[in-house]
Amino acid sequence: MTQVAEVNHTMSNEQQSSIGEQELATGYHESMVAEDDEDYSAGPVPIQQLVGNGITPQDIKKLKEAGFHTVESIAYTPKRHIVTVKGISEQKADKLLMEASKLVPLGFTTATEFHQRRSELICLTTGSKQLDTLLGGGIETGAITEVFGEFRTGKSQLCHTLAVTCQLPIDNGGGEGKCLYIDTEGTFRPIRLVAIARRFGLDENETLDNVAYARAYNADHQLQLLHQAASMMTESRFSLLIVDSIMALYRTDYSGRGELSARQMHVAKFMRTLQRLADEFGIAVVITNQVVAQVDGGAIFNPDPKKPIGGNIVAHSSTTRLYFKKAKGANRICKIYDSPCLAESETVFALGQGGVIDPSDETEAAEDE
């Protein structure tokens, strides 16, 4: 003890300070690891938890290859879809569903408990305070938000802004997670993320690394990318999934009324997969959509005859629908087109070098989309 005391006594102040900093850093790192473990345990249940009671690791491997990566994905899927997986019999599907129901609550709950869970949901800031206020705090997680409008109304710019803000701390309006970005029209520009990251004080390289980008080339590929997204979300924390835009490829892959039924069935499957991912991982899903001019008799009495494409399938699958319109200069108008909890109203926002901003910030506003 005497020798140790003498050594500590002879140690310089700089050395002691260095050791103290190392201990502090080590303690901070351990606390971050503990927080990550806690967040992981509160997230979706890994599908490996189903091993046992007649379910083998080989069965889990087959399910993963078919796009099932969590217990929730099994619990939320109809039995007739599970039995289509190669090597999964009807009896095995029954066992999978029975074991999944033990780990994932699927029964009734009180409105009080559900209200408590809803109050704990986070919203992602859009970059505009006025737009956030209109949306009740921002883009809702665990739900699908559809943004539709003509070209140059700010749809893609909102997507670029959200791809950055979703990485912010929760206290700053973010989701502390990465972003998955599916681009169907080739409008994704990383340079925009760099400018937006500077606005929010984020490291440019880290911001780009936290965005997983994929270009979809046809409707089938677009759906396949969602299966890859599910696998990625089990390995890392994501808070946002963007599809820009959802119907662009369907308009070219399916033509004429003869293929309308097949197109809508494919769209329904895609939207159902999006909702499943939102339910499983609690992420925010944002999709953009195009509009078409209404040419029936009702257009005569409608001051704005444009309507989103996709029909009732997209309309019923989207939780919140936002209508973007052009205004003067860099200003744009956002109207609540449909929402289960938001009143039909509208607000004005602007587009600038830093993405979506408030119109009052005239120093950044620019005619840019």
From TrEMBL:
Subcellular location: Nucleus
Pfam families: HHH_5, Rad51
Every RecA family profile domain range: 120-291, 298-362
MF GO annotations: ATP binding; ATP-dependent DNA damage sensor activity; DNA strand exchange activity; double-stranded DNA binding; identical protein binding; single-stranded DNA binding; Swi5-Sfr1 complex binding
Main location: nucleus
One of the GO BP terms on file: recombinational interstrand cross-link repair
InterPro entries: AAA+_ATPase, DNA_recomb/repair_Rad51, DNA_recomb/repair_RecA-like, DNA_repair_Rad51/TF_NusA_a-hlx, P-loop_NTPase, Rad51_C, RecA_ATP-bd, RecA_monomer-monomer_interface
GO cellular component: chromosome, centromeric region; condensed nuclear chromosome; mitochondrial chromosome; site of double-strand break
SUPFAM superfamilies: P-loop containing nucleoside triphosphate hydrolases (SSF52540), Rad51 N-terminal domain-like (SSF47794)
Signal peptide: none
The entry's keywords: ATP-binding, DNA damage, DNA recombination, DNA repair, DNA-binding, Nucleotide-binding, Nucleus
PANTHER family listed in its UniProt record: DNA REPAIR PROTEIN RAD51 HOMOLOG 1 (PTHR22942:SF39), RECA/RAD51/RADA DNA STRAND-PAIRING FAMILY MEMBER (PTHR22942)
Function: Required both for recombination and for the repair of DNA damage caused by X-rays.
Family: Belongs to the RecA family. RAD51 subfamily.
Protein name, per record: DNA repair protein RAD51 homolog
Species of the source: Ogataea parapolymorpha (strain ATCC 26012 / BCRC 20466 / JCM 22074 / NRRL Y-7560 / DL-1) (Yeast)
Lineage, broadest ranks: Eukaryota, Fungi, Dikarya, Ascomycota, Saccharomycotina
